[in-house]
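Schema walk-through. Below, the input block comes first and the output block second. Nothing else is stored per chain. Lengths vary across the set, and this one has 294 residues.
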Amino acid sequence: MDIFGIPVQAMMGQLLIGLINGSFYALLSLGLAVIFGLLNIINFAHGAQYMLGAFGAYLLLNKLGLNYWWALLIVPLAVGAMGVVIERTMLARLYKLDHLYGLLLTFGLALIIQGFFRKEYGSSGLPYTMPEQLTGGQNLGFMFLPNYRAWIIGASLIICLATWFVIERTKLGGYLRAATENPQLVQAFGINVPRMITLTYGFGVALAALAGVMAAPIYQVSPQMGADLIIVVFAVVVIGGMGSIMGAIVTGFGLGLVEGLTKVFYPEASTTVIFIIMTIVLLIRPAGLFGTQK
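--- output ---
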């Protein structure tokens, strides 16, 4: 069966690839949105922290023999703890300055991290074994769905929605949002605002590392994997609205699907379609699709 002259299997295959890419776009843009929306930090080190997640899983498996499931637990905590140290020792000194200083600092950190791993492991990708429990797939009739791909999509969606619920619908999320608007008032209620800010940055970094662990079995583990992705993810955040949690989630998944469809109908534009959409959105709605005008 064909749709517009294109076999259904080919179209569904590209949509699946687009949905998988969208899952990573959503996870990474969610971490960026949390950090920017609650801390007003443009975290350009996010791609490097995503790469650290993939390398953390690779090193745990090859040095300590700890499998994928252990990596899912340990690596986000470890990289998130590194984020806490970065926030306390470096970023905390820049909050009263222009946002540009935070961007330059995190950009410099990204270059240092990527340079270190490139020196140690080279530029070529390193393979990571897929967990045995998620090998194989399901024949849906119109397409073959690999189990690991289905796991990526489902897990990403659950993590994204859970994060949105905590920030938008719980008392903790209310404190976080209030702390960004009026930290002195929140501090007056006995809440430790600096600690809350530190943990929020650590959580956003942990989301990037978690995405890196999940990406390791699909994409080769490489020092450049974050640099190749971060520009697209920033475009996703801008389209959704800087700091908008729901905007990051919806736009991440949606643009992944758009990218997949573009590969079917007009492959030459698949690498630029997201940036074309970003340009159009900024011309029509500068705050983004889900952002608010200030």
